[in-house]
Amino acid sequence: MSQKTILHHIDDYVAGGLEFAEIDTRLYQNINDPEAVFIHDLSVPSLDTVALGFVTSQLANAPFDGRMVIYGNCAPRRTSEKAQKNNIDHGIKYAKLKNGVEIINVWSESAFGFVKNDIVEFRDLNCPNSGSQFRSRDFFPVVVAQIVNGDYSALGAELNVDDIPEIPNNTVSWTDGFGNVKTTMRKSDLEKMDLHPGDKVQVIMNGVSMLGVVSIGGFQVDRGVLAINAGSSGYDNPFIELFLRVHKISEKTAAVRFGYPTGGTEFEIKPL
């Protein structure tokens, strides 16, 4: 390999847990030049495929001079109510973006939705998808490592990017470690609603209603006030965050007040 490669390994296992260690070991085992690859682990909430799609996009669009590959494993098992024969479930797909970033994600409605408009190649991957309860360790890392090695022999049929569902702009995407709720709404959406800094709004989610203020930043409101502001994610058109300013971690954050919303939870903003 002529350049440093970063491999973002996104999984819905416990951060730093045994599962991450086993999968990373299997990845390094199959990468030809492991010293040239840095594996970065990132945990998303269990079964939260919206979170997977969100962090995939945020990482994929980050400035990076080397090569970036993203491997995301978060299966939408909440849609699988019947017994799965031979542990079969959703397989992995491959996408290459305009900026050269390559993504291998377990398929779900949200896994590629946030990068849909940047995909220049979208393919199926020939990889066993049954026969093991731990597919993300036993099967998927071999194919991921092949891609990292520059071996694209596992690429399968071309897929239609139009089959990737659009991401709605009124759902939760991610909750950060400070209890700030990141959403799929963007700054441009607030502008279309003719909402500007200083405007008061009502936010409704999970049966909870709170008054808030549209703000340039979360710290431009008083303590205890809910700010609706362009957050740190989304780059040129930032995603909107629900930021409840607190000074101690024991105080009720936005995530607490709205009942710890998971990815895909719908919300509504009403101008006042």
Q: By helix and strand content, what is the structural category?
A: alpha/beta
Mean pLDDT: 90
Question: What would the CATH topology of the largest domain be?
Answer: Rossmann fold
Give the total of domains: 2
CATH class of the largest domain: Alpha Beta
Quaternary assembly: single chain
CATH architecture of the largest domain: 3-Layer(aba) Sandwich
Task: Provide a descriptive summary of the structure in words.
The structure is a single chain. The protein has 272 residues and is of the alpha/beta class. It folds into 2 domains: 5-163, Rossmann fold, CATH 3.40.50.10790; 172-271, Bacterial fluorinating enzyme like (Elongation Factor Tu (Ef-tu), domain 3, Beta Barrel), CATH 2.40.30. It is built from 6 helices and 14 strands. Strand 1, helix 1 (18-30) and strand 2 (37-43) form a beta-alpha-beta unit. The N and C termini lie far apart (57 Å). Mean pLDDT is 90; it is low at 82-89.
Task: Give the topology.
Layout: E1 5-11, H1 18-30, E2 37-43, H2 49-60, E3 67-73, E4 92-97, E5 102-106, E6 119-125, H3 135-138, H4 140-148, E7 155-158, E8 172-175, E9 181-186, H5 187-192, E10 200-205, E11 208-215, E12 226-230, E13 239-244, H6 254-257, E14 267-271
Helix pairs in contact: 1-4
Quick summary:
By secondary structure, the chain is α/β, with parallel strands linked by helices.
Kindly list the characteristics that best describe this protein.
272 residues; 6 helices; seven-stranded mixed sheet; Elongation Factor Tu (Ef-tu), domain 3
